Amino acid sequence: MNGYQIETDQTNWNMTSGDFTMPHEVKVTRPGTDARGDHAKGNTKLGTATLIGSVIVHDNGNAPEAKEAGSDYQGPSTITCNELTIDSKDKSYDAHGNVRFVQGNRVGTADRGVLNQLKHTLHLEGNVVLAEGDSTMKAAVVDYNLQTRDVIASGAPMIIREPIPQGSPGPPPSPKPTKKPKK
Q: Is the CB of residue 40 less than 8 Å from the CB of residue 50?
């Protein structure tokens, strides 16, 4: 896997096909990124590895892709999930099961998420919830640009909640009913 270092205590690898399995804890590192899983499988010729079980990925903000994102880069992030396929050629992460993406005060959860570091995009699908501070959005599918912070959300029902800012005047009070004079 070009540009990656994989650490584990046992590997079963077919050098002809490139297929491998790692039955115990696996740690994957590359400049700016580290990941771990309970075990893994993959193919060195294809440059792919799938981490399985209690997966955690940290981007510390120093990956080459972060520098290419320019000044709009939103900073370090963490992904947790049940299973994650890393594509070293594409610089993408395809996460499945209990996906949680955290970057600053932004949190996204879904059944599946695909983070593409070259395109600076995050695709979330299935029971998606995005939160930033007290604002939330629920949808079936969300595509999020990590540089521009543009969001395209779809799926019914889509629900957006914005809190009422503290200290802002609320709606004017309803007028009190007046009593009719007695005759």
A: yes
Distance CA 160, CA 156 (A): 12
Confidence of residue 167 (pLDDT cuts 50, 70, 90): low
The pTM for the full model equals 0.79
Give 142-166 pLDDT, tens digit per residue.
Answer: 998 878 889 899 987 888 888 877 7
Alpha-carbon dihedral sign for residues 33, 39, 43, 48:
negative
**Domains of the chain, with CATH numbers?**
5-161 (2.60.450.10)
183 confidence band (pLDDT: 50, 70, 90): low
Residue 64 sits at φ, ψ, to 5 deg, of: -55, -35
The rounded distance, in Å, linking the Cα atoms of 95 and 135 is 24
